[in-house]
Amino acid sequence: MDRSAELRVALTVPDFEVAVAFYRDALGLEQLADWSGEGGRVILLGAGRATLELLDEEQSAAVDAIEGGSRPSGAVRLAVQVSDTEGTAARLVAAGGTHAAPAVTPPWGGRNLRLQAPDGLQLTLFDPHAERIPM
User: Which of 55, 108, 117, 107 minimizes the C-alpha distance to 80?
Assistant: First the structure.
C-alpha cells in the first residue's frame, strides 16, 4: 500500500440527518467535503489518523466483555480517541446515542467507554492517557 494511502470507513445510514448530527455535530468529526446531489447525500468527515484493528472472534468477545459487559459489538465497531470520555459520551447521548456500558479501565490502561450510535453501530470512546478509574 502506498504510504500516502487513506483508510475510509463508509457507513450507509437509515437516517442521514441523525447520523450527521451524531458523528459531525456531537462527536466533532470535521466535515471535509459534501458530495450530495440529485442522486443522494454524502459527506466526508475527517477523523484524524486511521488504523485498522483486526481481532479474531475470541479476542473480540474478550474486549466486548471488558468494555461492554456481555453486549457483542458485531463485526464492525468504531474506536475513537477523545480527551474526555464522559463529556463526549454526554454529547453523543444528547444526539441520539445510548450508553452500552459504563466507563472502564481496561487491562491495557487508559479509559474506555462504550456507546451505541443511533444507526446501531457501537463506538468505543477511548482516552489512553486517562488515570485509572477508582474501584
Answer: 117
